[in-house]
Amino acid sequence: MDGYPIDFVVPWVDGSDPLWQQEMRKHSGEDLSSSDSRDSRYRDWGLLKYWFRGVEQCAPWVHRVYFVTNGQLPEWINLAAPKLVHVKHADYMPEEYLPTFSSHPIELNLHRISELSEHFVYFNDDFFLLRRVSPEFFFRDGLPVLSSELRPIIARPHYKGMANIHINNMQFINNRFKTGEIVKNRKNWFSPQTHSWKAVAFNLFFSRFEYCIGFRNPHFAVPTRKSTMERVWQEDPGLLDAVSRRRFRDTRDVSQYLFRYWQYATNQFVAEKADRIGKYYEIQNDTDTVCRVIRKRLVPQVILNDMALVSAEEDVRRVREELIAAFESIFPEKSQYEK
User: Fold this and answer.
1) Cα 65 from chain centre
2) Phi then psi for 308, rounded to 5 degrees?
3) H or E segment at 279?
């Protein structure tokens, strides 16, 4: 390790909390025609404790773990854990941004967290470490380790409004950079040592365009520098303020991907192959593959994204039990973060 602290940040919400649901309904009288407030954004699969167990086993060197909530806490959390810092939205977000039911204001303002280290890794609560990783897995020579691939923006059927948000992010980048500037560090974009042959081919082809057509968005934990977030806010405070004031996710938003994009555009990152970083899965009725990946620890981190592909209550219960059993097989012991 290069001698600087690295923090982890993970947000969480208990969408089954009746008080939270009541508050959400109270504010949902706003125009939600262009918003995304799907239940799957808040559904709890009962896996959070395995996120903490993974951190303890796989990244014991972490400096602090910032657990960001609106004040809710799982009943098993141990707030006395030496490395744990519980951060409420009101602790770091301006009052005019609260309450919020969108991840975007929560993520866009993380740099305001008191005492957050310059180098931190942003996790969703569905990103799980499976293997022991070193600090260099996330940062090398002070720079974030990221997979880098130029990709067109595709509007997938069940990605409600996400293509709009990705376009907004790219508008921000293309207002400030041309593709030639972005790919000028050839090692970061064209090296077969740090890119698959497919990624090299995509990057070579799409680098011919004057403006960037988009970036692939690998759904992994994102190493980020606090100074990068501050720099992006300086670029367009009005835009980020407007997004932060919206209570629900909206097609006019930009997202936290913007900070990663800025690191791409300025070549302030170290490139790595995506398959060396992790594997992404959408939670489905058939869990055989993902449970095998978890039990055998086949990748450093696994992502289990809920895209509402499991809907029947009996299927939800079964899938939840199967995923919990898989994690229990590798993380059977309580972590310091549990009572």
Assistant:
1) 15
2) 60, 30
3) strand 279-282
Burial class (CB in 10 A: 0-12, 13-18, 19+), 47: middle
Question: pLDDT digits over 225-273, tens only?
Answer: 999 999 999 999 999 999 999 999 999 999 999 999 999 999 999 999 9
- What is the C-alpha separation between 207 and 49, in angstroms, rounded? 42
- Partnered with residue 173 across adjacent β-strands are none
Q: Band of the pLDDT at 34, cuts 50, 70, 90?
A: very low
Backbone angles phi, psi at 335, to 5 degrees: -95, 170
* The two three-digit tokens of residue 265, written as one number: 């555009």
pLDDT of residue 2: 59
CA pair distance 79, 87, nearest whole angstrom: 11
45-82 pLDDT, tens digit per residue, is 899 999 999 999 999 999 999 999 999 999 999 999 99
Determine the Cα angle at 180 with ends 174 and 182, to 5°: 65
**Class of 6-330 in CATH:** alpha beta
Phi first, then psi, for residue 101 (nearest 5°) are -125, 20
Instruction: For residue range 1-31, list pLDDT tens digits in order.
Output: 458 999 999 999 988 788 888 888 888 765 4
Contact between 129 and 303 under an 8 Å Cβ cutoff? The reply is no
For residue 302, give Cα distances in angstroms to 24, 297, 306. 30, 9, 13
The amino acid sitting at 107 is E
Q: Which residue has the tokens 């921000």?
A: 172
Is the Cβ–Cβ distance between 238 and 186 less than 8 Å?
A: no
pLDDT-above-90 percentage for the chain:
81
State CA 309 to chain mean position distance: 20
Domain ranges of the chain: 6-330
